[in-house]
Fold this sequence. Notes:
Layout (H helix, E strand, L loop, with lengths): L1 H16 L11 H12 L12 H8 L4 E2 L12 E9 L2 E10 L2 E11 L9 H8 L3 E8 L11 E7 L6 E9 L10 E8 L3
Antiparallel strand pairs: 1-2, 2-3, 3-4, 4-8, 5-6, 6-7, 7-8
Helix pairs in contact: 2-3, 2-4
Amino acid sequence: MPVIRNAAAAVFATTMLSSPASAQDQPTAEQAMARVIQGALAPSSLGDWRYRWDAVSIRISRDMHWHLVGPDDAEEETISRNGWISGGGQQIGVTAYGAGETVGGLSIDYDRWPQFDGEPHPLIAALAELGVEATEIARTVAPEFYHTDTPVIVYRLTAPGRDSGTLKRSEQCTSPQSAAAQRCTMSYTLELGG
Length: 194
């Protein structure tokens, strides 16, 4: 019987050591988004091909999942690819868009509780941890139908050795008078090659 008990203990120990990382080891939603944004900003040393679909996909695919797509219609003016990022227990929607062979930007959306103007922006802090500086270049009042006091903010993103880009942050919420609790969708739009 001691042999069976020792074998069972060995199997249990092996299973525990080879189990996937715990939730504590997973990045937050903002850290996961920051890694995708940083990866999308191309290294300046790359040639004219740095924003081709395959080049951008290679840089960001380690941090996100893509939906399978059929062949592109050559007549379409805008091409897009959809996928998602997993982080902080949330599914974060991502759309890459562009024209022809070139990716022009990414749109990232996720649901959250309402944010108030003046609150720290966790994505900006997560970008800073990766060496990406976000400088505010514009701030406007959100349209009334967004049901939020949070302004629309545009940042200039710069990082050593990488192309710069612009990141627009906006929040759109359900009406405060809705029967359900108010919830918001936070949207970030990254324009590449700026």
